[in-house]
Design goal:
elongated, 8 helices, Serine Threonine Protein Phosphatase 5, Tetratricopeptide repeat
């Protein structure tokens, strides 16, 4: 999923409608402990919570869920159109926390949905580097390798799509050429003998 797809629950630009602070805290808590049903209900009632970052660290719910390894909540929020690259007050996005905490399933999901673990934040640090700093260099390497495989798979799929489109176009061209040639053959008239007046030859 492009990771910046519009949230289908949203309406056109409007004044944000949010619950009170206590309810927002409950929403963030539900994301942290891995309660997708409660998170979904909050989003249904208050779509603007999806990108809300009024948690103490400036994190959105998807960041909190990734940090805690709550894959079901991450999947839910991503499906609703949450920005997977949103950063908190320290410019750390969901992939950074997945890397820091060794949350392989969350990291793979994010990478499969277009997040680049090798991309640096404003401080010049990447999720791969964070994994190394957390004494998990192998995990960082795995993330980078998974990203490479994901990009290769996308490139292969695009190449196959283009090849199929090319073959379909060529086949269509062959069909049109055959139809035209068949029509020309069927409409060829018998040779006409020119005359220049009765009994006269040129």
């Amino acid at each position: 999923m492009s990771n910046n797809a519009p949230n289908p629950a949203r309406t056109p630009p409007h004044d944000k409608v949010l619950p009170d602070k206590a309810e927002i805290a409950r929403y963030f808590h539900a994301a942290t402990i891995g309660n997708p049903n409660e998170v979904a209900q909050f989003i249904r009632d208050y779509p603007d919570l999806l990108e809300n970052n009024s948690s103490p660290t400036g994190a959105t719910a998807i960041i909190l869920a990734a940090k805690a390894g709550r894959l079901e909540v991450v999947e839910l929020l991503a499906g609703l159109g949450a920005n997977l690259n949103a950063g908190d007050n320290g410019d750390q996005s969901a992939i950074f926390y997945a890397a820091a905490n060794g949350e392989a399933a969350v990291a793979r999901f994010l990478i499969n949905h277009g997040v680049d673990p090798t991309a640096p934040n404003r401080a010049g640090v990447s999720a791969v580097a964070i994994a190394g700093a957390q004494d998990m260099p192998i995990f960082g390497q795995e993330m980078a390798a998974h990203r490479a495989r994901h990009l290769q798979a996308e490139a292969d799929a695009e190449r196959q799509r283009l090849e199929a489109a090319r073959e379909a176009l060529l086949q269509n061209l062959r069909d049109v050429t055959e139809a035209v040639q068949g029509g020309v053959k069927g409409n060829v008239a018998a040779p006409r003998t020119a005359t220049f007046g009765k009994g006269k030859t040129p």
